[in-house]
Amino acid sequence: MSKKGISNSSDKLTKGEKTRLLILSKSIELFGTHGYFNTSMQMIASECDLSQGAVMQHFPSKNKLLETVRKFVSNSNHDFVDSQISISDDGYTSLIKHIKNNFQWALKFKSEASIIIIIYEHAFFDSEFKEIANAAFRLGTERILRYILAAQREKSIQIEKNVSSEQIALIIHEFLVGLIIKNVPQTDKKKIWPEIEERITFTLSKLLNYSN
């Protein structure tokens, strides 16, 4: 969890809200270190110096806790990525920045990024989380589609006639998720980033037939 986000958001919170934020913070750390299934509510309570009952007053089940963590991480991701995109950027530039900065966010906040991976993993075993994962994936694809449509209006890209903008957005999102799952868990940012940056630029330019 971004320390900047914690410090900025905790200044004016009530005691109960600060406790809730502490639980979320420690949950992200533990889920990221041990995985969702190997982290118990008691482990989270111990890290927070609380009783398990006190934790469950805020989050009555681990599933409810994970869903709240997912929303927090999603907001953190959006804040980080959107802050890197200027209102003056064209559609293609915004798309490139969106993809690159999603990967940069995952490298910078690996524990938070692991939550996204956990959600997809948990969807295999829990129908409720399958819907959550599908909804999260649709949202990510829609954000990418918005930039593709803007680039099409600006005539900086040209998509093949037998492929829709929606299909391209889905492919790009799958590409991004795959990059994060494969490369982030054991990757040194300084070693991997130049290669990933080049791969992102090359892949998008080919998919979208980009022209200056």
The 3D shape can be described as elongated
CATH fold type of the domain at 63-208: Tetracycline Repressor, domain 2
Instruction: Extract low-pLDDT stretches.
Output: 1-8
Proportion of residues in extended strands: under 5%
- Main beta sheet, described? none
- Provide a count of the helices: 10
* Strand tally: 0
Label the CATH architecture of the domain at 63-208: Orthogonal Bundle
Series of secondary-structure elements, N-terminal to C-terminal: HHHHHHHHHH
Helix content: over 70%
Distance between the termini: 38 Å
In angstroms, what is the radius of gyration?
19 Å
Mean pLDDT, all residues: 89
Give the C-level CATH assignment of the domain at 63-208: Mainly Alpha
What is the topology?
Elements: H1 3-10, H2 15-34, H3 41-48, H4 52-58, H5 62-83, H6 91-108, H7 110-122, H8 127-153, H9 165-183, H10 189-208
Helix pairs in contact: 2-3, 2-5, 2-7, 3-4, 5-6, 5-7, 6-7, 6-8, 6-9, 6-10, 8-9, 9-10
Description of the molecule:
By secondary structure, this protein is mainly α. The protein has a domain at 63-208: Tetracycline Repressor, domain 2. It has helices spanning 3-10, 15-34, 41-48, 52-58, 62-83, 91-108, 110-122, 127-153, 165-183, 189-208. Helix 3 packs across helix 4, helix 6 runs antiparallel to helix 10 (189-208) and helix 9 (165-183) packs antiparallel against helix 10. The radius of gyration is 19 Å and the shape is elongated. It starts with a helix and ends with a helix. 29% of the residues are buried.
